[in-house]
Amino acid sequence: MIAFDAPAAAHLLRRLQFGVTPAEIQRAVGDGLEATLDRLFTPQPESQEFTESQAALRDAAVATASIQDLKAWWLHRMAGTANPVTEKITLFWHNHFATSYNKVLSVPMMTEQNDLFRTLGGGSFRQLLTTVARDPAMLVWLDGNANRKRHPNENFAREVMELFALGLGNYTEHDIQEAARAFSGWHLREGRFWFNDSQHDTSNKTVFGKTGNFAGQAIIDLCLDHPACPKFLAFKLLRTFVMPEPTTEAIARVAAQFVKHDLAFAPVLKEVCRTPEFYSAEVRGTIIKSPIELILGTLRSLCERIHWPAVRDLAAQLGQDVFAPPSVKGWDGGRQWIHATAWIQRWNFLSDVTGSDRYGSLRSDVREAILQHPHDWLTALFSAPLSDIAKEALIKAGAADRLPLALSLPEYQLM
Amino acid sequence: MSTNRRDFLKLLGTAGVVSLAGPAPSMWSSALGAEAKKGERVLVLIQMAGGNDGLNTVVPYADDAYLKARPALAIGKGAALKLNDTLGLHPAMSGFRDLWEANRLAIVQGVGYPKPDRSHFRSMDIWQAAHFSERIPTGWVGRMLDQTVAQSGGAWEAACIGLDKLPLTCLGERVVPPTIQRLEEFRLTASGRDAAPVSTAAWKQVAASTGGGSEIDFLRRSATSAVSNAERLASLSKTYRSATPYPSTRLAERLKLVAQMISADLPARVYFVNLDGFDTHSQQLPGHAALLGELSGAVSAFFADLDEKGRGNEVMLTTFSEFGRRLAENGSLGTDHGAASVLFSVTPAGKGGLYGKAPSLTDLDDGDPKFTTDFRRVYATLLERWLERPSQPVLGEAFAPLDFA
Amino acid sequence: MNFVRSARVAVWVGFASLAWSAAGFAEEGSLSDRLPPGAIAVAEWANAEALIERVQSSPMFKAAYDSEPYRKWAESGDGRKFRGGRAVLEGQLGLNLWEASKRVFGDRGVLAVYPPSEPGGKPEGVLLLRLADDTIGGHLKSRLESLVPLANDKIKSETIDGAWLLTAPDGNRTWLKDRWVVGGTSRIVDDVRRRLVEPVSDSLAKTLGAKLPGAPTKSDTALNLAVDTGRIRELLGQSRMIPAKLDNPLASLLFGGLSEYAAIGNDVLASLQIRPEGYELKVRLDGDSGKIDAAHKTLLTSQPLVQTELLPTVPRRLATVTLVRDWPAWYRQRDALLEAKVLPEFDKFETGLATFLPGKDFSQDILSLMSGPLTLVFAGQTYPHLPQPPGLQLPAGALVVSLTDAQRGADVFNLFIQTLTSLTNLEAAKQMRQPWLTSAETYKGVTITYARYLEIPKGQALPAIFNAQPASAVVGTQYIAASSVELCKDLIDALQSTQKTATTTAATVQRNFELILAPETAAQLVNANHALVEARSVQEGKSAEQSKAERELLENVLRAQQPLRLSTDVTPTGLTLTLQGGWQ
To answer: Which residues are registered as beta bridge partners of C378?
Structure first.
């Protein structure tokens, strides 16, 4: 039985959206866990203001072919949408199939890939992987055109196994070399996927001990049917949404869910969110916030009139430059986010949130609301109860210093 | 405090070249507070990220198998900077040739490990961790530092230059060295208040508290040291200049910073510097030449600078890369991920030369030359012979050192 | 410009603005006949009331008042102080500031600046106002008199012959009756008071005041200014007030001739007329053309003006800039026009140019091909060759130069463009963009060489690069290099029309520089790119609705502007600068 009290609701919302406000917590507690999950996982109508402003930002990015504008569009979308789970899942797949504009060099292609994650990300991984394998940005990113019959390029075949579907240790170098031949001729022409049959190797391949005249799709299917696939997805889901170091038992449980749901992502995530384990102390407040979680979460909870170019540049400085992950491996996350430079930048951002308009303006009611309802705000801002020392320090601090001090505490970096 | 070190610390202040990253428990406190031991040996590691093509770096120009496998990419007899009758350096590496002629360049051939992994990430993890287990939490320099933390209370430290995150090599159980980029990144803004919240006594008291899980513990430790580093660095000023001209490359800038830190007697004994871009899958010739030129030019300027300051014999510099490239070139005028490769060590005068056996180019393992020298022997050499630390606790087993140190 | 030089210029400008205006007009004659002679600068204005009223009622002014920056300023510390001070003052006066300004400054005024009475002293200024109505003087006195004691008796207040006389300890004195005199010393204020009662023959109106250009009319606002630069130079003991060498090549090329006349000329005479339909500022720099050195003469060449503009307008014109210069001589003598520190940039430029024109020397082979006017034209586009406009609509640009040898000149410039196209194609291949193919077509007997795209992508917003379709043509001796075929054709039309009229009209004006800006086209571009303009605003955290409103405001402000024209003409004794514009 899950006690869906305010801290539990706050925990659920923190993991499924970007930051949380006392009002959202109150609503979730009032609705109860099931209704809240149903709402979060069912498409909600967007406001007119959001629809118009996101369209303006997106049109501008596409019209000027500016990736910087596209980054601003997506960040704005993550923070403003009525469907945050969709954006969280989109960001999850962007990190999973980490593709960078720095090589793709095409805003339309990056946009198309992002839309793909948004429309297919919550559904079956079968369809997602099959589509991503033919996605133009991915073909550029992993050198599809360089993979030719007599000069196979292993880049895509390797990452399908290592990073997309199976994980290390579930395949051999030989599997990769053979699979690469199966993907030969998967090319890009005039900006679209094109099967170049003159460059496709039609001889037999042996992958995972099975031999046949495999085409690329057959390899994808072999990977999808591989027993490591649901485990790998379970590991990645858990690490992103649940705990930094997934336990073997948790992986096994979630992998079974993936098998049950035929690798569909959102239904499994929803299942995970209704298990008692999800609300255990071992899970709450154990994830170090990514730059985007920190920035968007803070701004969503506290600010208005957000200055998107500044937010975008800050996220990049802190190490999470969307549409430009550091490598195909994506962002490592966890403790890797934190080094002393990051600390300074994170604190400086939090200082600016309360003391300047650089990233957005503190909502006029926030300061007062925090003084009026300190407990509600502590629940919204902190993922675990603060120590007595910390509470005492906050009480002693002057009214104006309370929020800046709270945000600067190491505890605020956890979710 | 020695004059040099004071000058360096001033440099940190205004030149704005340094930032600290990482929960750096004691480096800066000892750097700024305690008297450094002058003349201790220093190791500089250069990571050639992406997998350097060793065959086009130290070129077997007389080997038919090489010429045949690389009809478009082979560096011919006329172009290579000859080291002997069979080997030559890439033509962009005249600085390394000079070091070779001064008998200071050690070339270790056929370096690799059994069952080579061709994934960048996995192979880099293996090189950095010097370990083959699936989950590798620490790197070999980090483990060495952990030992000395236990034994001597933390006199040994390392610094990582020009990376945005800490390399696994330097990550220990207890020790997380700083990464250094620019000083401005270390300025705490108060945004209209008298002081940044983290500079207040209240914050420090809360951050010093204990309890909670391992993540909060990690955050408190790293946050506390970040604050103290930032506060110390905030008071430093003035510039320091080097007389030796460095090329205007990123690697040269980083090595110049290292030279300044060394001549300022900072207590770091290991510096980790990254040079990226060696994943030359296509159109390899121009890009690879530029990278090797950057390496050679920066390293020779670095040693000229150290020699000028009389510190050249205190420093060993060693390069490494996660793997070499395939013997055969690919269809896009590039080379794909391979296995064994060469590495360089610039050693105090007299120890230059060839070490390890060059692998055969006709007896291949899955298209790659077979390794002849386990990379951990190189680490053992650096640990035992240069840094004078026992290698077995760090590497897990005993490896025979080579003679370049 | 270095600091010392900037400071000198600032002093000069300061003189000019201090000196702004002093000249009685109309039935009373110039007010300057009530001022003593010997001023180094004098400015006189009339009918300021009409101007104040127009500013007050202008929609642009209201827009500025509603704008975000103004609101921010108004809420800032400075803004609050200003508003507070204004409220106190208005309360004290019992008038709002607009009304007070109209009644005090709205009629006539003259301001004169005199050299220091003793060496090393400060220049002395005196302001004489003819108040707009009979009662305002008394009103001001009655309202402000009570404030005087607040200054702790430091200000001496007297009433003499119904006039109010105030004297500050530092000698500043003001006298208020139906006129208002403000001056730096009691001596000068008293001198003017005497002259108000009984005019003296040796007045300023007879000396510098006589040079004031323009005559006041009943309804227009007018400002006339005369500055005796020769005298100022003499007083400062300097042979020139602006250095001969500038440190900004573009500024030198555009305004080097103007600044040389200002530096060595005798007088600067200006008149500003503001009428309901627009304003016109004329500045005459008079001097001895014989004193201009050979280097600066290259900047002072001119072209006879046969129509109202050197180059007839093109449709959707955004801007035209024409420079008439002796190009090869100018480049050869750049050492005498520019500071040494900027000269290496030219060498770098020449090195860079060698990439595009291998084996050619910029001065010998390229500039020598050009003579007389060089025109840059910018205009909006309609994209007749594209299925839909690009996502970002940019104006087309073109360069029109007069060639000394049409064939040879066209060859060299075409070589440049072809090389540029090839290099762009190499880059396009790397970035997966469409390459350009060189093509040709004939338009009204002129061959246009242009680049077209291999393919135009369908079903998506076209990238901004589709704004460009480089084209070139030769019309007579004029070479056109345009960024679009459309503009190239429009320029061919324009040039052919000048050739027809050139022989029939006799030119009276020698034009040296011409700049025309059309805000209407700018408004159209804002409109064409409205989605992008609004997106910028949304990025800054504004709502979609507010962003739209602000964009519409910007468009309206631009539409309210009439075209702005700035030109310089060479006269036998100097240069005349004319600025014309207007707003609704």
So the answer is: C319, C397
User: Is A316 an 8 Å CB contact of chain C?
Assistant: no
The 10s digit of each residue's pLDDT in B335-393 is 999 999 999 999 987 899 999 999 999 999 888 999 999 999 999 999 999 999 999 99
Segments of chain A scoring below 70 in pLDDT = 339-340
Are A319 and B331 a contacting pair at CB < 8 A?
no
Q: What is the pLDDT of residue C216?
A: 58
Q: What distance in Å separates the CA atoms of residue A148 and residue A178, rounded to the nearest whole number?
A: 13
Domain that holds residue C492: 294-407+468-518+563-581
Query: Which range (A230-234, B173-177, B233-237, C539-543) has the least confidence?
Result: B233-237
Shortest CA gap A50–chain B (Å):
30
Q: Do A57 and C539 touch (CB under 8 A)?
A: yes
- Residue holding tokens 């298209």? B367
Q: Which residues of A touch B281 (CB under 8 A)?
A: 143, 146, 153, 155
Q: Among C264, B109, B168, which Cα is nearest to A332's?
A: B168
Same domain for A328 and A384, yes or no, is yes
Q: What is the rounded CA–CA span in Å between residue B260 and residue A328?
A: 35
Reply yes or no on whether the pLDDT at C520 is more than 50. yes
Count contacts between A and B (CB, < 8 Å).
170
Number of structural domains (chain C) is 2
Of A49, A191, A306, the CB nearest to C544: A49
**Cα–Cα dist B141/B349, whole Å:** 25
What one-letter code names the amino acid at A1? M
Q: What is the domain extent for residue A24?
A: 6-40
Fill in the DSSP letter of residue A386. P
**Domain for residue C216, yes or no?**
no
Domain count, chain A: 3
The answer to whether residue C368 is domain-embedded is yes
C72 or C334, which is more confident: C334
A76 touches chain C (CB under 8 A): yes
Q: For chain A, list the contacting chains (3+ Cβ pairs, <8 Å).
A: B, C
Q: Count CA atoms within 13 Å of residue A256 on its CB side.
A: 6
Q: Do residues A335 and A406 share a domain?
A: yes
Q: Give the tokens for residue C132.
A: 């707009």
Report the distance separating Cα A185 and Cα A203, nearest Å: 13
Which architecture does CATH list for B37-187+243-395?
Answer: 3-Layer(aba) Sandwich (3.40)
Which residues in chain B have Cβ-Cβ distances shorter than 8 Å to A344?
185-188, 226, 230
Q: From start to end of B122-175, where are the E strands?
A: 157-161
Q: Same structural domain for residues A295 and A403?
A: yes
Q: Are residues A274 and A299 in the same domain?
A: no
DSSP B86: S
Chain C residue at shortest CA distance from A61: C532
What pLDDT is attached to residue C502? 55
Contact A346, A318 (CB under 8 A): yes
pLDDT attached to residue B267: 65
Q: Give the integer Cα–Cα distance in Å for C257 and A324.
A: 52
pLDDT of residue B180: 73
User: Taking CB atoms and an 8 Å cutoff, what residues of chain C touch A63?
Assistant: 390-392, 461, 464, 531-532
pLDDT at residue A404 in the model = 94
